[in-house]
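Exercise: predict the fold of this chain.
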Amino acid sequence: QKVCLQRPRDDVAPLPQRRHSIGGDGTPSGPPPVAARAFSDFCSQLERCPGCSRQFRSDVLLNHKKQCEPLLKAKRESLARASAGGVQRTSLGGGGGSSGS
């Protein structure tokens, strides 16, 4: 087994401090107004998924709906209820033959 015979260095340089942007009055400034407007415009174009309530662009939402698990589960349950209801109706209907002459 190899063992390091050297002692660790004590003169490791500290990490540089992150600079904070400060406004003219000494308080941290927010994002530039153009960026804030662009973000709000982007957010206003998002549509909410009816299954999971996540927000997507309209073109992405179409693909998401095909894969959204809560939405697929609800669709499966409604189809199961509809098919169960359909079985009862056809059994009570007495067939669908022609009535007639």
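Check your answer against the key: The mean pLDDT is 78.
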